[in-house]
Specification:
Blueprint (H helix, E strand, L loop, with lengths): L1 E10 L11 E5 L5 E14 L7 E8 L8 E9 L4 E12 L5 E8 L6 E15 L1 E3 L11 E2 L2 E3 L5 E3 L13 E2 L11 E3 L4
Antiparallel strand pairs: 1-8, 2-7, 3-6, 3-8, 4-5, 4-7, 9-11, 10-13, 12-14
């Protein structure tokens, strides 16, 4: 996901222990996918006429109220020249029904200065939710058909009457199931 922020400036907070001014980005998965963010790239500069450098604190959370945040990094010595900052191997997972919120908090001792944010790039991948049983056709004498879940665990399985299905694991008891064609559904809370 790419967000162009050409020309955005944010005032410094004079109090680093309780920064108030920030820029917030929000991204979330769609279509029943889980999103994993593995790279954050920022283009930043200190938008001042003096040679004073600035700093930026970067945090993230999946909570809309941002009360359970984690720090990604603190960038010091941001100068008037546009600089590239890259954070690799973040491996932040966002379930399909949540959003990732990233906040940038500029700070310095002088509150009249600004940090200039040119571009932000978030790089990641999505993992679709899928369930597989290893093969398409099973016989009643084959024991248990085990479900393999990819994507998000913790959902509930269901199927038409006649198929003996564990609603938590998705495993099928073939010996106690009636022969026939069945569709197994997997639902995750919030879907």
């Amino acid at each position: 996901t790419y967000k162009d922020l050409e020309g955005l400036s944010v005032a410094y907070s004079s109090n680093f222990s309780a920064p108030k001014e920030y820029v917030q980005f929000e991204v979330g998965p769609v279509n029943g996918n889980k999103l994993t963010l593995n790279k954050l790239t920022l283009y930043l500069s200190n938008n001042n006429s003096t040679s004073t450098s600035s700093s930026v604190l970067i945090r993230y959370s999946t909570s809309p109220s941002f009360d359970n945040y984690q720090d990604i990094a603190t960038l010091d010595n941001i100068t008037t020249e546009m600089q590239l900052f890259t954070f690799d191997d973040l491996n932040i997972s966002i379930p399909y029904n949540e959003s990732l919120i990233i906040r940038l908090y500029p700070y310095k001792s002088s509150s009249y200065k600004y940090t200039f944010i040119k571009d932000v790039m978030l790089t990641g991948y999505t993992t679709p939710i899928s369930v597989a049983y290893g093969k398409d056709t099973w016989c009643t004498g084959e024991g248990i058909a085990e479900a393999a879940i990819t994507g998000i665990d913790g959902g509930r399985f269901s199927a038409a009457e006649g198929l003996t299905l564990d609603p938590v694991t998705g495993n099928i008891d073939l010996a106690n199931s009636q022969p026939g064609d069945y569709t197994v559904s997997y639902s995750v809370s919030g879907e």
